[in-house]
Amino acid sequence: MTSKNYVKVGLWVYTSDGEKIGDVAEVSDGKFRVDASMQPDYWLNANDIATLGAERVVVAFPKEALMQHLVEEVQFT
User: Which domains does the chain have, with CATH numbers?
Assistant: First the structure.
């Protein structure tokens, strides 16, 4: 089950090297906002998801590559 349609608020977000980077705080327009502990929140593209389970999302890149995968904040109209 890796469809971006199943990304839900509250899921834990991990990188491919097993580092927890936060929790899904919001889902919109093929992107999801990560609530990162003691850091500003940021958005990732749902296409970067490698696996999706009942409790966690694992993105397809290691933590050291996180900054290269950030996307612009979703603008609501």
Answer: 4-59 (2.30.30.240)
Checking DSSP bridges between strand 20-28 and strand 31-35, what pairing results, if any?
antiparallel
Q: d(Cα 34, Cα 73) in Å, to the nearest integer?
A: 11
Phi, psi angles (nearest 5°) of residue 18: 85, 10
Predicted TM-score (pTM) of the model is 0.87
pLDDT in tens, 21-74: 999 999 998 999 999 988 999 999 999 999 999 999 999 999 999 999 999 876
The DSSP code for 18 is S
| pLDDT at residue 72 in the model | 81
